[in-house]
Amino acid sequence: MDNNDTGVLQEILPADITSIFSARPPTDARLWGIETEMARNMGEKRYAEFIHGRHTARLALQQIGCPQAAIGKGKSREPLWPQHIVGSISHTLHCAAAAVTFDNKYLGVGVDMEPSKQLEEKLFKAICRPEELALFDRENLTPRAAGERAKLLFSIKESIYKCLWPSVQSFIDFTEMQIELNESKQSYTAIPHTTKVSHDFVQRLEGRYKYHGELILSTAWITA
Predict the structure, then answer these.
(1) pLDDT tens for residues 16-58?
(2) What is the extent of the structural domain holding 61?
(3) Which position among 3, 10, 63, 142 has the lowest Cβ density within 10 Å, counted as fewest Cβ atoms?
(4) Contact yes or no for 222/167 (Cβ under 8 A)
């Protein structure tokens, strides 16, 4: 995998959302401004992920003409983007990804990356709704296939949470969102089971997913 690849994540995003996928921690990454204080008490692994994610986000911002700047964090640890920007950051397995765009085009963007190994069965009920678990049974999924499906749903719901945050400003639990997959198109439909966000609003949400090596990549977006 090439470092700083603009195509890996772009395949599952609209063309006017700019993304960067970074396969390796860069040697020239550094923190800016308030980020240094934010990272002060982080352990080595968390610090490496943090600096990699912020560096990748700045590369994406640079692509849309934003000057280099610190990316702070809000009350729920969400990135604080420059004015008129919405975006998302994810990192795992030494990789990082970021997607950004302008808020006059999109109300929110979410990206997530997860190792593609299966989710443990003991975690299914914390991640999956009864309707999703019932589908596992109807499709006669093997334990391994069920674990892989549950992990995909986990990633998609993470993307949705990040995408909805700028509009909802509230935590949406995994079991408050139902996902219906369209596997042929590697897309999905989200159905809310919560009063925190309206069904009509979530109907406007779109997203896609893909497998890339040992990773699951998922995205979500809502047009303005």
Answers:
(1) 999 999 999 888 899 999 999 999 999 999 999 999 999 999 9
(2) 10-111
(3) 142
(4) yes
